[in-house]
Amino acid sequence: MQLLDDLATHWQIEDPEEQRLISNVSWAQYETLLAERGDSLAYRVNYLDGILEIVAPSRRHESRKTRIGTLLEIYFLEAEIEYFPTGSTTFRQAQQQVGLEPDESYCIGSEKEIPDLAIEVIITSGGMNRLERFRRLGISEVWFWQGDRFSIYHLREQVPESFLQTAGYELVQHSELLPELDVEFLNECVRNPSPLAAAKAFRQSVRQQMGLNEGDRPS
């Protein structure tokens, strides 16, 4: 679509984190947009109940999401957790009138149609109801990186009425999918201005937690 191409070009000039909301978009129009966009990474598209959200990620956004993914994959490797990265795959269900493209996502333990964990970096607040999108797809855990730290939400299928304000998710202090993960140290490593130093420090911390010496596994 020419509108989307023009927006992407404009947004890239100063590397802002920009988003646009468009109302009254049919599911057919949403799917047509996805088909026309193809594999382009210039912008991401989310959909909920006829509202289309178009996001042009900034360099800061992409840097954070890539660093989070790198650190998590170090954790999976060192902790010997089977994982299947699904990245920013478009997940959508017409009956639920929802479509989303997380910054990072993972199936844990086994490969599934819908990931267990989704991660979003939030630079610009506002937009559509993020947690509601994830709930409709049945994603168990959602991490938001905002304000230089993670907020972790876990879906409560048994008592959704207790968490109506958060679309059935409970804000938790530690990941229930990865209960041994030191989230506070992960926060520190994502904030570290040196990606290399952060990765090395995080790997060493995980190895110490697992009772490993530096030579126990290949680097």
TrEMBL record:
Residues of the Putative restriction endonuclease domain: 27-181
Natural source organism: Thermoleptolyngbya sichuanensis A183
Keyword Hydrolase belongs to the record: yes
InterPro entries the record matches: Nuclease_put_TT1808, Restrct_endonuc-II-like, Uma2
The name this protein goes by in its record: Uma2 family endonuclease
Domain of life: Bacteria
PANTHER family: SLR0445 PROTEIN (PTHR47152:SF4), SLR2084 PROTEIN-RELATED (PTHR47152)
Keyword Signal belongs to the record: no
GO molecular function list: endonuclease activity
Keywords, ordered alphabetically: Endonuclease, Hydrolase, Nuclease
Pfam families named among the record's database cross-references: Uma2
